[in-house]
Amino acid sequence: MQFHQLHYFVAVAETRHFTRAAERVHVSQPSLSQQIRALENELGAELFSRARGNVALTEAGESLLPLARRILADAETARHEVQELAQLRRGRVRLGATPSVCTGLLPDVLRAFHDLHPGIELRIEESGSRDLVRELARGAVDLALVVLPLPTPSPALTTVELLQEDLVVVSSAAGPAPRRPVRVADLQGEPLVMFRHGYDLRELTVAACHAEGFEPSFTVEGGEMDAVLGFVRAGLGVAVVPSMVAQRAGRDLRVTELAPPGLRRTIALAHRSDVAPPRAARELMRLLLETRIPPGTAP
Questions:
Q1: Residue 168 phi, psi dihedral angles, 5° rounding
Q2: Half-sphere exposure of 225 toward its Cβ, with a 13 Å CA cutoff?
Q3: 237 Cα distance to chain centroid
Q4: CB-CB neighbours of 271 under 10 Å
Q5: How far apart are CA 36 and CA 47, in angstroms?
Q6: In the chain, which ranges are E strands?
């Protein structure tokens, strides 16, 4: 008894027609009939009655059908399990993330993932949440770490909140110390080093300034996270950055909290709802979800 014979048998049992069954399994009708006959000969019983052109299961066929389905399902499960194990040995994960998340959250998580699965290739795509949503939609990345709320909500995406993070003000340690804590209103007239357009932190900071009734003034704008921190170190102005980034920024930057209610952002893990992520990506999801921090407890 061979797997392809059971596959052909199930196809005939479900279609009640040899020609249609042959089309389903992509073989010729004579080849399919020959294999069914071989299976019947091996079992010593007819599986189908073919009276007057009608195909029906015999008693033996009725007994075999659930067993054949179970055998084929178990074989498919075994194939799937082996493939998934192979994916964890030599697979690939394409992860999208905002640049500040790459700087703050990801290094420790990716290190832990690499230690567990050294054969997995990690590809990181840095971009803003708006661009990352588009990358997910077209299948260019498997997972993405985005800032909520999304610029354009998408029902095709599943998002899981990972953490809520405070934003802080960073300034050059060589310059004068700002008042502690800093209010958003205190940033009026303060020279700001600002991120490029499309950067989530830029939109959040500018919106907070507008809510306080003023237009922020920029000394330098258009940089990514590393560039912005470098400009602040050089004394070109202050910047509003995530607290996890500030913790890694070094002693040459002064970190000042924002006065209540302050500014916070929500980081979420996103993936497509209609396509299951690959096995290696699901393993990275597990590690990321283990880093989830309850609201109000992020640094």
A1: -135, 170
A2: 21
A3: 35
A4: 19
A5: 8
A6: 48-49, 56-57, 92-97, 121-126, 143-148, 157-172, 191-195, 217-223, 239-242, 253-257, 264-272
Instruction: List the structure tokens of 274.
Output: 């209609």
Strands 217-223 and 191-195: parallel
Judge whether 129 and 100 are in contact, CB under 8 Å. no
59-90 vs 3-15: helix axis angle to the nearest 10? Answer: 120
Rounded Cα gap, residues 158 and 84, in angstroms: 22
DSSP letter (8 states) at residue 258: B
Place of tokens 């249609």: 20
Cβ atoms of 81 and 89 within 8 Å: the answer is no
For the whole model, what pTM was predicted? 0.64
Question: Which amino acid belongs to residue 199?
Answer: Y
Which tens digit of pLDDT belongs to each residue from 158-206? Answer: 999 988 889 999 999 888 777 778 899 999 989 999 998 878 889 899 9
Beta strand 143-148 with 92-97: parallel, antiparallel or unpaired? parallel
Residue type, 238: V
Q: Is 26 exposed, middle or buried (0-12, 13-18, 19+ CB in 10 A)?
A: exposed
pLDDT at residue 120, as a whole number? 86
The crossing angle, in degrees rounded to 10, of helices 3-15 and 18-25 is 130
User: Do the strands 217-223 and 92-97 form a parallel or antiparallel pair, or are they unpaired?
Assistant: unpaired
pLDDT value, residue 88: 67
Residues in the chain, how many? 299
Among residues 53, 161, 106, the alpha carbon closest in space to that of 284 is found at: 106
Q: Residue-wise over 124-154: b if at least 16 C-beta within 10 A, else e?
A: eebbbbebbbebbeeeebbbbbbbbebeeeb
Calculate ∠ Cα 43-47-52, nearest 5°.
145
